[in-house]
Amino acid sequence: MAPSAKTTNGEVILMIQLSEFLAPRPEPMWTLIKQAGVNNVIATLNGGEQDQRMFASVGKNGFGLDESGLVPWSEAALKRDMNIFADHGMKVIGLEDTAPMDKVRLGLPGRDEQIENIITQIKAMGNLGLPTLCYNWMALTSWARTDTDVVIRGGALVTGFRLSDSKDMPPLVEPGEVTDEQMWDALQYFLDAVVPVAEEAGVRLGMHPNDPPYPIIRNLPRLMRSAEAFRRLRAMRPSPSNAITFCQGNFALMGDEDLPTLIREFGVDGIAFVHFRDVIGTATDFRETFHDEGKTDLPECMRAYAEIGFAGPMRPDHVPTMHGETNARPGYETLGRLFAIGYIRGVEQAAFGRPAVT
User: Fold this and answer.
1) Which residues contact 18 (CB under 8 A, 6 or more apart)?
2) Pairing state of beta strands 17-22 and 313-316?
3) Burial of 149 (0-12, 13-18, 19+ CB in 10 A)
4) Does this model's pTM top 0.90?
5) pLDDT of 9 above 60
6) Backbone region of residue 84 per phi and psi (left: phi > 0; alpha: psi in -120 to 50; beta: other values)
7) DSSP letters for 274-292
8) DSSP string covering 94-135
9) pLDDT of 102-115, one tens digit each?
């Protein structure tokens, strides 16, 4: 059942599940996030693909490998991670990480074994009541940035990307070695294998856009780069379990797409999970922003979510690094998250209604 809250007049209204993106390694930031009113967690796997890859992809140090001996995507490991959060008063409601799947994305020998690992993870999530899995089709890497120290208002730092600067980044594959259709065929193979499992487990898969949504970077195609690509994804295996992670920053860079219109088009059947963020610029030259200064009408986006009855997980993403922070984790330091949580909660109450104070 979708989360709900009563207004002061007793009316029941739907509410989003405001969440934060955390690794299952306790740190002081967790207390601040809880004080800001967020107890829901979208978690990485301790030793999963994105857990190990996301900061290395932008030239920063990653996390150490899990030394427990548990397979990170096994039910035992997920239960352990959920208990770690529960011991700190937080609840895991979804995962934004998977077992390694580059062979799956590229259609290479060995993909069936990797798909079996994903199936193991999905079944474990179903058993543990974790209904949302965010994944991506960015092979061999993760998000791409050419600068992690762009100075914005008040000296805050954000990440940025300039296509001309990316020419200096080492290639991931040889020119022409991987094609769009190769990756589309691989995606169809994957969806045919896992969507029925996800349906049975009660898990919604949410495909994340390529970040940035540009056709090819470092010789590797970036498949999920347009609204039309997501329409194609949904048509390949129609199901509520074959859905979208609506990362607003990336959709805002896809051209002339109007985000509130797209939110209403994809609806609750199409959108499993939301990254509520914004940018300035185009796919070939952009930077992140504070939530109140980007190119998108974010209050109107929230009104669109309310209109379609979205009650799934939503989290801030790629926040500015603020005064006194090291920027060791660009986009994911602490103070910018607190600013973002407050902003999102404000526009949520404006659009969905204010729940009663108990």
Assistant:
1) 37, 38, 40, 314, 315, 341, 344, 345, 348
2) parallel
3) exposed
4) yes
5) yes
6) alpha
7) EEE--EEEETTEEEE--TT
8) EE---S--HHHHHT-TTHHHHHHHHHHHHHHHHHHT--EEEE
9) 999 999 999 999 99
